[in-house]
Design brief:
Structural class: alpha+beta
CATH class of the largest domain: Alpha Beta
Number of domains: 3
Distance between the termini: 43 Å
CATH topology of the largest domain: D-amino Acid Aminotransferase, Chain A, domain 1
CATH superfamily of the largest domain: ATP-grasp fold, B domain
Helix content: 25-40%
Number of strands: 23
Bound molecules: adenosine monophosphate, glycine
Largest sheet: 9 strands, mixed
Shape: globular
Radius of gyration: 21 Å
CATH architecture of the largest domain: 2-Layer Sandwich
Length: 421
């Protein structure tokens, strides 16, 4: 089949690589992809949110299937647009993508289906004073979340009440995150360890993909600003079979059933961010309606069955007949970022990558070709994934290769996975 893959990051390079291993793939088109994925398919010059432009490509290149990497096109309704044109799409409908597109929607959904999550209150300009009183009643740390998409920056965790009150006002009245923070969710702070679960679903059946843990802070020891993710490991060693059994029963099943009951069409992956407390309870802290980045770079390499077939089966409501196989090996990925990230950073930096090797893979994230030269084109530039019999060997190898990636101001977190070694 001819496949059109939307997106341009490391996640999409990992999807492209897994798709390219499938005997079902005829031709892969990338809208727009990056210098790494361009070796696996044909780039098309179209934004993932330009649906009319994508429709032209679908017709011209006889596309049979669209796989969506990032959340923005999903929240803007790419599924629905192509459903009307009978093109299968891997991703939820616009209504279901609200699980990521609106924190308030996600909280209300969890409350309707008794899915464990932090208690919360929703605040808008009309209820600002009530929101302030709520902050005075609860104790810190205070968690404030912009309702809408905010490129991973819309969550503030504040220790002082004064700061929390002024941030709430800034978000709502000064529109700190634009329209996205016109509505804010104030959430109870949950203490514990985070991990992520990825559930493939066609709306009726589901398959649980490998679990992962990502490292969001830019600095070693989990310090500094939040980023899209500086590295990831799979599986996080503390996620036992018993834990997954409980997660499946109390979170995954009610989520899939709830979507189905509410008529929310979902042909994609539900990414569930969880906090496991010391007492052994779980709370969902977020839903995302797509794969994680850089989690995909550790999740997909551990899937030994056909990943394109998996996504196609979800998109065509045939997941029941798909046989998922997962490697027992561990995977680690280390992101090499550009100096300044996640704030301002330089682009167009000439790069030198280590020679290809059999035991580590370099997924490009922010790269492009300028004339014949490979140059940086983003804050997260590449992510290096290695598999190993245990986490330590995969981490050691991923870091070794990450250290060989050269461009001016390249840095990576040498402590990814530190707590497990
Ligand atoms: P999110 O964008 O919802 O993933 O939130 C970003 C980060 O904020 C998460 O990865 C958590 O580390 C933290 N976080 C979000 N919600 C909570 C909460 N209720 N309690 C504690 N930490 C949270
Ligand atoms: N790594 C976090 C995310 O993809 O949302």
């Amino acid at each position: 089949m001819n496949v059109l893959l939307l997106g341009s990051g490391g996640r999409e390079h990992a999807l492209a690589r897994s798709f390219s291993l499938s005997p079902r793939l005829d031709k892969l088109f990338l809208a727009p992809g990056n210098a790494g994925s361009h070796s696996l398919g044909e780039p098309v010059d179209c934004s993932p949110t330009d649906f009319e432009g994508l429709a032209q490509i679908v017709e011209q290149d006889h596309i049979d299937f669209i796989c969506v990497g990032p959340e923005q096109p999903l929240v803007e309704g790419v599924y629905d647009f192509f459903a009307e044109r009978d093109v299968p799409v891997f991703g939820p409908s616009q209504a279901a993508a609200q699980l990521e597109g609106s924190k308030g929607f996600a909280k209300a959904f969890m409350s309707r289906h008794n899915i464990p999550t932090a208690s919360y209150m929703e605040v808008t300009a009309d209820s600002l004073e009530e929101g302030m009183r709520h902050l005075e009643r609860v104790s810190g740390p205070y968690v404030l979340k912009a309702d809408g998409l905010a490129a991973g920056k819309g969550v503030l965790i504040l220790d002082s009440l004064d700061e929390a009150k002024s941030s709430l006002r800034n978000m709502i009245i000064e529109q700190q995150f634009g329209q996205s923070s016109a509505r804010v969710v104030i959430e109870e702070f949950i203490t514990g360890i985070e991990f992520s679960v990825f559930v493939l679903t066609d709306g009726k059946d589901y398959k649980i993909l490998p679990t992962a843990k990502d490292y969001k802070r830019v600095g070693e020891g989990d310090t500094g600003l939040n980023t899209g993710g500086m590295g990831a490991v799979s599986p996080p060693p503390f996620v036992s079979e018993d834990i997954m059994h409980k997660v499946e029963h109390s979170i995954i099943q009610p989520t899939i059933k709830g979507l189905h009951q509410e008529g929310l069409i979902y042909h994609g992956v539900v990414y569930i961010g969880l906090i496991l407390s010391e007492a052994g309870d779980f709370h969902v802290i977020e839903y995302n309606c797509r794969f994680g980045d850089p989690e995909t770079q550790v999740v997909l390499p551990r899937i030994t069955s056909d990943v394109l077939e998996a996504c196609w089966s979800a998109a065509t409501e045939n997941l029941k007949n798909y046989k998922l196989s997962i490697d027992t090996q561990c995977a680690s990925t280390v992101v090499v970022a550009s100096k300044g990230y996640p704030e301002a950073y330089a682009k167009d930096l000439p790069m030198i990558l280590p020679d290809p090797c059999h035991d580590a893979f370099i997924y490009h994230a922010g790269t492009k070709r300028h004339r014949d030269e490979l140059v940086s084109n983003g804050g997260r530039v590449v992510s290096v994934t290695a598999l190993g019999d245990d986490l330590k060997s995969s981490l050691t190898r991923a870091k070794e290769v990450a250290g060989q990636v050269q461009f001016d101001g390249a840095f990576y977190r040498a402590d990814i996975g530190y707590e497990f070694i």
